[in-house]
Design brief:
This protein has 255 residues and is α/β, with parallel strands linked by helices. 32% of the residues lie in helices and 22% in strands. The protein is globular.
């Protein structure tokens, strides 16, 4: 490691420690098209949604304040956390590559793997290996390793789910893989993509169900906070506060 790199690393560490001592931490996530998770309110331009309500409440119970950064693309958000430029990222999937540089909370939500394709071109998917027989698409910056797919196996040029779905329906891809709950909840469920007759979906039998995690740098100063975050989340679920925040943002969608 060069002297310049060591100095930069030390400066980032000192900045992060100062933020923690001041009681203010930074969290990042890329806003979606709409509710329920994280999006920008069109009237105010401010971040809103379940994540915007949940995480300040979690850290307040730990005596800390947070600021959520919504200006980074997802891949850049994760890289910034790994480098110590941002303290935490919200809603990351766990995979081997990320686990080399990131520490993970317990999952606060577990999702259901699916493959989506055109009704006019049904696919036979008996295992993850079958996915590589076809042309697949995915979201920019997302991890699909639990489907047995690397970024070399997919066209990951889409930056919104509406674009991803349109790309598949137009025949530019044979399929895309995504969790059932993600598609169900696009824009608060108002588009009802699961009810579109020309978009079919099925299970990927051997794909492990991914969880949503809060992550921080594996060697950073906030790793020990993750266990305390897990305890707060569990307490909020037992009290019903967690579910209430979801209902406030999800317009009747199941958690």
């Amino acid at each position: 490691m060069s002297l310049a790199t060591r100095l930069l690393t030390a400066a980032l560490l000192l900045t992060s420690l100062s933020a923690a001592q001041a009681g203010t931490l930074t969290l990042c996530s890329e806003p979606g098209d709409g509710p329920p998770w994280l999006y920008r309110n069109k009237a105010t331009g401010k971040l809103a949604g379940f994540s915007a309500d949940l995480w300040p409440a979690v850290f307040e119970r730990l005596g800390l304040q947070v600021r959520i950064e919504g200006g980074l693309p997802w891949k850049r958000c994760l890289r910034a956390v790994a480098m110590g430029e941002v303290d935490f990222a919200i809603g990351a999937y766990r995979d081997k590559e990320r686990a080399r540089v990131l520490a993970f909370s317990a999952p606060y939500k577990v999702l259901t793997p699916q493959v989506f394709f055109r009704r006019s071109q049904p696919l036979t998917i008996k295992s993850r290996a079958d996915l590589k027989k076809y042309r697949g698409c995915g979201m920019n910056g997302s991890s699909y390793l639990h489907y047995g797919l690397s970024d070399k196996d997919l066209d990951q040029g889409s930056r919104s789910y509406t674009a991803l779905i349109s790309k598949t329906l137009l025949g530019n891809c044979d399929y895309f893989v995504e969790e059932l709950e993600v598609i169900q909840q696009i824009d608060g469920g108002r588009h009802h993509y699961l009810d579109k007759p020309d978009l079919q979906h099925t299970n990927v039998p051997d794909a492990p169900a991914p969880g949503l995690h809060l992550v921080t740098a594996i060697n950073g100063p906030h790793r020990e906070l993750l266990a305390r975050v897990d305890a707060v989340i569990e307490a909020m679920k037992k009290s019903g506060e967690f579910q209430r925040l979801w209902r406030d943002n999800a317009a009747g969608l199941p958690y």
